[in-house]
Amino acid sequence: MILPFAKRRSAVKGILIALGCIVAAAALSFGALAAHIHYSTPTPSDTVREIHVEPGDSFSTVARKLSEQQIIVNRQLFSLWARFTGADKKLHLGFYRFETPTPAAQVLDRIVTGKGTLLSVTIPEGLTIVEIAELLAKAGFADKEKFIAATQEPELLAQLNLQGKSLEGYLFPSAYYFAPRTSERRIVAVLVGQFRRASRPLFEKVDESIKMTPHEIVTLASIIEKETGVEAERTLVAAVFHNRLKRGMPLQSDPTVIYGIKDFNGNLTRKDLQEYTPYNTYRIAALPPGPICNPGVASIKAALSPADDPALYFVSKNDGTHQFSADLASHNQAVRTYQILRNAAPAAKTSARAR
Q1: Which among 117, 225, 264, 277 has most CB atoms closer than 10 A?
Q2: pLDDT value, residue 340
């Protein structure tokens, strides 16, 4: 049936009005979406949040991480905008740090372009400043000499309120994330800051029987760190050294001697043990003047809470563990027992032994 002209005109007008409403609604929706994505959202201010975009992460996974960290507010709108712009297919892997509030558009731009990607590095327990500098240089984080120089800056030492001539012992072993081109001085400050955060709770619970300064505790912890990698032995090694210090006995720790030798070639000789340096604990009956490496929490805990054990000696059993003894006769017997393996294996290390 053919409608009269007036009715046809009315129907067309209705259709046009409906289309106009649809377009207007779409425009409003797009405008709202654009407003959401381009303006800061009411997330907690002055807060630093981090996420890791890992291999295999879908965009929805990344959006969930952003939402959980309160970096974005509306995950659905964020994902919708990403699909609309095609950004959901262009994720850039890496670590990201955001200072909130940050507009969602900027968040999206950074994870798509990789702007502000953080590089990761893990510093193991027991490394010296020089070894950490070499690790960072190899990973492309820092210049070795500049990093070492930063750990010896009097101004930085004073600013961090630390005694000694360097920050040896206070560069905390952990996993870190740095932006490219972070200065060596800034990296040092971050490592020291992490040491303070990790160690503060430990030093707040010092046993009154421990008559040592925090610097002495860190020094002892560094020796424990070098003497054993066995978790269960740390407090026993700590007990040996605490017992010796109380009796005025030299610690006789090989790692301290090695630390005091310039350009050590890997072969500790009898001559080395007899030569005087401030770090030769065969020659001095006290702690060395400072840490010999950068210890982890476990060694600091052991230094603060040694085992209740009378041990004064320990000798390597050639399997990574040690035999502990409370008297010289027992120690000498342990040496005879375990040093039999010397001809069939690398020389066993004996520490804290009388001479």
Answers
A1: 225
A2: 59
